[in-house]
């Protein structure tokens, strides 16, 4: 864990990551996706925040659609999982503080009233709407958080802005797992932020910080998962993942690299 960061007293241990709710979706105009049907629960794999979301997160609209179909929404519909008024900027954390916006819904560099969009599409519950930019935004936020952790782990001194943003973004996403009340009246919900792929990704990051697990680079030369990991996938028993004694992010990567090296040895022997 980077110096100066400590877990809160009530949760100074690894927390169990809950499954995320996933629903069917319908593609609408203007980059909007409509969630439909009942929920099914999906467990996020180990290193999801490093690989599917932070490393190889969706960039194009078709990738976002496939992501939401498989892993569910990323953002809380009312942005309760983010510090108000902050945006990660391309210039890094030093340029990340943006003007506070009073709109009930904001993403990228535009604001939008989600209720008005729901009315335009004749959607009964505005919480059923997801915008592709929300997904990209949360993936970018996770990537920035991971980048900061890697820099600090390598000895870089965090700036005050970096520290503040890191804590506020992590705490914002973690409120989805805090004690609280849920009250539903009409289409709006007075509750904690929704559990999403984003909030569970940040919970994975939190757990790795609590356990002080280093972010390692996969030894597979052609790792298809983004190259970074803390827990190896593919050799689990009773919900456990290998966190030490391995150079590869998955059993598949270990087999792939072993086969590659075997072919190289055979090639040398036949010369």
Question: What topology emerges from the helices and strands here?
Answer:
Layout: E1 20-27, E2 32-42, H1 49-53, H2 61-71, E3 106-107, E4 110-111, H3 114-120, E5 129-131, H4 132-153, H5 160-174, E6 183-185, E7 188-190, H6 197-210, E8 216-217, E9 228-229, E10 232-237, E11 240-242, H7 251-269
Antiparallel strand pairs: 1-2, 2-5, 3-4, 6-7, 8-9, 10-11
Helix pairs in contact: 4-6
Tally the beta strands.
11
- Please give the domain count: 2
As residue ranges, the low-confidence spans are: 97-106, 236-240
Helix-strand sequence: EEHHEEHEHHEEHEEEEH
Molecular structure report:
Helix content is 34%, strand content 17%. It has 271 residues and is an alpha+beta fold. The chain has two domains: 9-213, no CATH class; 214-271, no CATH class. The longest helix is centred in the middle third of the chain and has 22 residues, at 132-153. It is globular, with a radius of gyration of 20 Å.
